[in-house]
Design a protein that fits this description.
The chain is an alpha+beta fold. A six-stranded antiparallel sheet has the order 2-1-6-5-4-3. It has a six-stranded antiparallel sheet with strand order 14-13-12-17-16-15. Strands 8-7-11-10-9 form a five-stranded antiparallel sheet. The chain binds adenosine-5'-diphosphate. Adenosine-5'-diphosphate binds next to helix 24 and helix 25.
């Protein structure tokens, strides 16, 4: 065997002569794997490389069929291969084989048929080489090439394949001629740079390039690379050239490019260079249109800058808050089915503390620092809890507003400043509607301490004027009041005299005396009631908000004016709606309004000597849910020339009038959130004053003084 092939069969037990062993070494040293097998495929020889490649030792393989060792799938069926080798003595092809460890290897093999002297086939010598890695690389390359081609064709980016050779030649000549600083030269010679651009030819480009930069004609674009470059962008092109001569393999930058149709694009320009300058015949350039993205970024940056400027320089205290913990508390409450969060907080006060502590101040502007009398923004680190000690209720309502999905909340609050001063502030909060930013909110504060002080003062002055007006009404009513008080007093006197007479009887008529004493007690009560009403009108109380019945107020006012009405022969017609809701307001002030309007009506009818004198007071439920109160007379009505001035302070048409009755009525009604207007009776000439009052909302402070008022 050894004289047929310089390769040991390595059959166990074979003793090899030393010279043969030397020859075996030679075959074992070749880089290829060598296997010898008969036409029956039984292996007779197996070299060292075959052992290494397939993992099988020669003693494992020799004697068995080769397929048993290396299960393989040849590129052609074995039968075809054997036919071919029989005919021409040689076959070349590839096998995918399995090694002992189960790994797959690809081998490139050559089978040679050895014949004996008579030309009969002896065996087949296979030399093969492991090309697994080569194949893998080839496949990867193919994949990349495929990807590259599809990217090139279908990408939203524009790709150009450029021939730089002429331009590169020109640059080489320039450098050879001794120009040292290439970058400086390009910077100072835009004409030269333009010239280089004109030398560059587009050798290929994708569809997107035509769409973005073309003008409809493919050929024109291929000839016009330089036309894509406005002068303002030559610097970038020059830099891209410097990069290649600095041996960089790529360069990218943002640059403005023009389409042949004149459209300007903000682009990202990327160019990759081949490693050899000499190969500048094929340079790939990618251009991505970032116009929209850039515009969006610029707009966002601008709006962010504007927001920051506003935040910091607005003369309003602004605080940026973060409250992930609050969002979690909300989620918790939602999972428990809570709908009224305000109520929930009332029943769980400890939760309100958690919300307060969970809301953290992230940033404050300068105005916040000065308004809350701090030294620097650093003092605001931490939760908002310290600012809500005086207005916890308002904070609770703000949290409830946020919980129920309202876009914001505002309220007048009392807020402790860092030096301990309690400020009156208008607090407003804007809750972020941006998904993912629900934990953020913006809070603003406007110091209204001065305004609140001014309003307090105004309210006091107005209360005093109203009081003065009431006292003046009492003055006008002195005669009536005196008469009213004298009536029960006279009755008491008469009763007392009669009682004495009955006591003098023999025996004294105690029954009569008891009855007279009872009547006297009634008269005393009547006198006391009159005095109470007068005292109420004369009282100097701070206006208060209570739940009051408008019908009751009307009845009391009529009772108060009973004698004045009688004295002026005025009939009162009360048309009061039953089941009216109560309103929130000040009983004395509202009664003052009805009394004022009634006295005006009585006076108008008396001055006019009206033959019929009816004062009608009507109450009704208004359509909007409030209350309607009308005071109507059968007097001469309101002079058209005066109509616009009735509510002006000191406007009067009466000789002894003061002209403050109606303006005070208006101030009081507006402070109750209502309106008052003057008009005419529907049937007849008399005046009618109409008041609308809301059932709930009542401002604690009157909104303004009477127009042109004191
Ligand atoms: P004064 O009663 O002191 O004049 P008011 O402010 O109460 O002050 O009234 C202003 C003016 O409005 C009256 O002088 C009068 O001209 C007109 N006026 C008010 N009520 C009536 C009414 N019921 N009928 C006609 N005119 C009225």
């Amino acid at each position: 065997m050894s004289d047929r092939l310089s390769l040991s069969s390595a059959i166990p037990g074979d003793k090899l002569p030393s010279d043969a062993s030397r020859r075996v070494d030679v075959v074992d040293l070749v880089e290829e794997s060598v296997a010898v097998f008969g036409l029956d495929m039984r292996v007779t020889a197996w070299n060292a490389e075959a052992e290494r490649l397939y993992g099988w030792k020669r003693e494992d393989v020799i004697g068995g069929v080769i397929q048993a060792a290396v299960r393989c799938s040849p590129s052609q069926p074995l039968k075809v291969i054997l036919e071919k080798i029989n005919q021409v003595g040689i076959w070349r092809g590839e096998f995918v084989r399995r090694t002992k460890s189960g790994a797959t290897v690809v081998v490139k093999a050559k089978w040679s048929l050895r014949r004996d002297l008579a030309g009969g086939p002896i065996d087949i010598v296979e030399t093969s080489r492991d090309i697994t890695d080569v194949r893998r690389t080839e496949e990867a390359l193919e994949r990349v090439q495929h990807q590259y081609q599809s990217l090139f064709k279908s990408s939203v980016a524009s790709f150009f394949e450029l021939d730089f050779s002429e331009a590169a030649q020109s640059v080489r000549e320039l450098l050879d001629s001794g120009a040292v600083d290439f970058r400086a030269f390009l910077q100072n010679n835009s004409g030269y740079v333009r010239g280089l651009l004109e030398m560059i030819r587009i050798t290929g480009c994708n569809d997107q390039s035509f769409l973005t930069f073309g003008d409809g004609n493919r050929e024109t674009l291929l000839r016009s690379f330089d036309r894509l470059w406005p002068d303002e962008s030559l610097g970038v092109f020059a830099e891209s050239l410097v990069a290649v001569f600095e041996k960089k393999d790529h360069y990218s930058s943002e640059v403005v490019l023009l389409s042949l149709a004149g459209q300007r694009y903000d682009t990202l320009y990327a160019v990759s260079y081949p490693p050899q300058l000499l190969e500048l015949t094929r340079v790939l350039v990618g251009v991505v249109d970032v116009t929209q993205a850039k515009r969006a970024t610029t707009a966002r940056e601008r709006s962010e800058r504007r927001y920051r400027d506003l935040f910091h320089f607005l003369p309003v205290a602004l605080l940026q808050l973060e409250g992930q913990e609050v969002v979690d508390i909300f989620d918790e409450a939602r999972s428990q089915g809570v709908t009224d969060f305000s109520d929930h907080l009332k029943t769980h006060p400890e939760l309100l503390d958690r919300v307060l502590n969970g809301l953290k101040i992230v940033e404050v502007n300068d105005r916040t620092v000065s308004m809350l009398r701090a030294q620097s923004a650093d003092e605001f680190k931490g939760s908002v809890a310290r600012y809500w000690t005086e207005s916890r209720d308002m904070f609770r309502e703000a949290a409830a507003a946020r919980y129920s999905g309202k876009p914001g909340y505002e309220a007048l609050v009392k807020m402790p400043a860092h030096d301990g001063t309690i400020l009156d502030a208008l607090f407003f909060s804007v809750f972020s509607p941006i998904p993912g930013e629900q934990n953020l909110s913006l809070v603003g504060l406007i110091d209204v301490s001065d305004r609140v002080r001014a309003q307090d003062m105004l309210a006091r002055v107005q209360a005093e004027i109203a009081h003065a007006a009431r006292v003046s009404v009492l003055g006008e009513l002195t005669a009536s009041i005196a008469h009213e008080v004298s009536q029960p007093l006279t009755a008491i006197g008469t009763n007392t005299e009669a009682s004495l007479l009955w006591l003098e009887h023999s025996p004294p008529d105690i029954g009569e005396v008891r009855e007279l004493a009872a009547r006297t007690a009634t008269e005393v009560q009547r006198a006391a009631d009159i005095i109470d009403r007068v005292r109420l009108m004369a009282s100097r109380t701070v206006p208060e908000q209570r739940s009051v019945s408008v019908n009751l107020i009307v009845e009391e006012a009529v009772l108060f004016l009973r004698h004045e009405l009688q004295r002026n022969e005025v009939t009162v017609s009360l048309d009061l709606a039953s089941e009216l809701p109560q309103i929130l307001g000040d009983r004395v002030q509202l009664q003052q309004v009805v009394v004022n309007l009634a006295i005006n009506g009585i006076q108008a009818m008396a001055l006019d000597n009206s033959p019929t004198r009816i004062l009608t007071v009507r109450t009704a439920a208004a359509l909007d849910g409030g209350i309607l109160l009308e005071v109507e007379d059968t007097g001469p009505g309101i002079d058209v020339n005066d109509a616009g001035r009735l509510f002006e302070s000191f406007f009067t048409t009466k000789a002894t009038g003061m002209g403050i009755g109606l303006p005070i009525c208006r101030t009081i009604i507006e402070a109750h959130g209502g309106q008052i207007s003057a008009g005419s009776q529907t049937n007849g000439s008399g005046a009618r004053f109409t008041i609308r009052l809301p059932t709930q909302s009542c401002r604690s402070q009157p909104p303004a003084s009477p127009s042109g008022g004191p």
